[in-house]
């Protein structure tokens, strides 16, 4: 049951992101913590972020983050780890996004530069 819920959440999350970001996002065929020695993010088509999706009543965000970071290290990729989670009976749009502050500040700073709130330093 829990694997089915997790797989279903990955599919619905990929559809939500595809519909709202305008880029094709899909569930990785070997998601769910990898398959053997193969480490895969739960979603692909999300440039520069490694998405770890968790549908659980009691999210263990630090272990989910560590899982994403292990995958990033194993794949030797520069992606930022992102955990997206929701409880049962919560709409996908109300999922929580968890990331390291250091990664978030880079994204927010880029947004502030884009909106003209701060000047871009060369």
Q: What does this molecule look like?
A:
This protein has 122 residues and is an alpha+beta fold. The chain has one domain: Trna Endonuclease, Chain: A, domain 1 (3-Layer(aba) Sandwich). It has three helices and five strands, in the order H-E-E-E-H-E-E-H. The chain has helices at 2-21, 61-75, 101-115, and strands at residues 26-27, 43-44, 49-55, 80-86, 96-99. A three-stranded mixed β-sheet has the order 3-4-5. A two-stranded antiparallel sheet has the order 1-2. Strand 3 (49-55), helix 2 (61-75) and strand 4 form a beta-alpha-beta unit. The chain is globular and about 45 Å long. The model has no long low-confidence stretch (mean pLDDT 90).
What would you say about this model in short?
The chain has 122 residues and is of the alpha+beta class. Helices cover 41% and strands 18% of the residues.
Task: List the keywords.
alpha+beta; Trna Endonuclease, Chain: A, domain 1; 122 residues; globular; two-stranded antiparallel ribbon; 41% helix; 18% strand; three-stranded mixed sheet
Roughly how many Å is the radius of gyration? 15 Å
The separation of the N and C termini measures 52 Å
Arrangement of strands in the largest sheet: 3-4-5
> Class in CATH?
Alpha Beta
State the secondary-structure class: alpha+beta
Task: Please give the oligomerization state of what you see.
Answer: single chain
Shape: globular
CATH architectural arrangement: 3-Layer(aba) Sandwich
Average pLDDT number? 90
Q: Uncertain runs with pLDDT below 50, 5 residues or more?
A: none
The helix/strand order is HEEEHEEH
Q: Approximately what portion of the residues adopt beta-strand conformation?
A: 15-25%
How many beta-strand segments? Answer: 5
